[in-house]
Amino acid sequence: MSDIVEPQDPCVERLAKLTGDRCKAKNAARRLKALTEKIDEAELAAEADVFRAMADPFRLAILQLLRDGELCVCEIMTALERPQSSTSHHLSILKRAGLVKERREGKWSRYRLSEGAVIEMMNLAGLMTDGREG
Running along the chain, 134 residues long, what does each successive block of 10 average in pLDDT? Predict the structure, then answer.
């Protein structure tokens, strides 16, 4: 008989305690390990930045305005009745997250959505909230 003892995998041990089945726990642990190896931490951080930027109602209102095309800061602040400093601050957050692009025109900055995917994200958010009303 072999006296070799396999090192215990904490993931397998936790799953075995929860499920009561060591064989299933080993299979699940292998699958989970393969799944977690695919996760890129830098990519997660970048994606979280996008969601954080979109999580503010004022920034969403800016994105809604920009759906129909390019606007300057003065137009955005006037439409949303906010001061220039606040509007510029929120636009810089959206720009850092890659949601809007800026174009300089003399002393003016004009903003537009960076790509069609931003509109798709807004449409998906709208679809997800439709079922919650009522």
Answer: 66 88 88 92 92 94 94 96 95 94 91 90 85 60
Residue 92, both tokens: 């810089």
Yes or no: domain 43-130 corresponds to CATH 1.10.287.3510:
no
Domain borders along the chain are: 8-39, 43-130
Q: What is the pTM of this model?
A: 0.75
Whether 78 and 64 have beta carbons less than 8 Å apart is answered as no
User: What pLDDT is attached to residue 131?
Assistant: 63
Per-residue pLDDT, 7: 67
Burial annotation 14-27 (CB, 10 A radius, 16+ → b, else e): ebbeeeeeeeebee
The 3 state secondary structure assigned to the chain is: CCCCCCCCCHHHHHHHHHHCCHHHHHHHHHHHHHHHHCCCHHHHHHHHHHHHHHCCHHHHHHHHHHCCCCEEHHHHHHHHCCCHHHHHHHHHHHHHCCCEEEEEECCEEEEEECCHHHHHHHHHHHHHHHCCCC
